[in-house]
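Slide 14.
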Amino acid sequence: MINLSPALKDKFHAKEHLKTIVDNDNGSEMRVKTFDLNILTGGILIFALLDELHLLGRNVHTTKVLRQIRGGLDKTPGGLFLITTTQSDEAPAGAYRDELHTARKIRDGQYRGKLHRPMLPVLYEFPDDIARNPAKWQDPANWHMIMPNLGRSVHLPTLVPDWETEKAKGVNAIAIWASQHLNIEIGIGQKTDAWPGAEFWAQAEDETLTLEEVLQRCRI
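Slide 15: predicted structure.
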């Protein structure tokens, strides 16, 4: 991109062998870093972009590395940490699961002033009534809801044949395709790993059920 733009080429110097871009005006650098505790420890950052966090969910050091990144940004007023990721093609786990659930709680207004570190979640996910209903999230008519680039970088005439091909392969292929393109959570198609019956528990209360009735019904 820099090489194709005379204006950018004048302002930035790309050191491809070092995976580094230098700002010629102020000497600041943008680097591609390996997600490793030894490499990311102790840095002072202005901006950090972490791509595809779901791939690191099961890495035992992910939480520690995230702490190092945030610690480096805390040293810079106005430091910004941006995380971009699709849904995982396995059940969410580890640090990815924690960050995902935190983002959902903030979006849904469950924290309300309890967080001291600002965070703006931008989540492209179906509403519960669609996410829990395969007939609805598998309908291409609903895909525009979670595809902001539809008609730009992705197109239905390409997506639909690809989806139909993967759908014919079976459950595993469907799960992987849906997680990557539609952000459907693997395994449950819901936005939590809690017991699904929990939200219906209170409504199912039977006030006429007494201890005597329970003892009468139980065989053991």
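Speaker note: Residues 106 and 115 are 9 Å apart (CA to CA).
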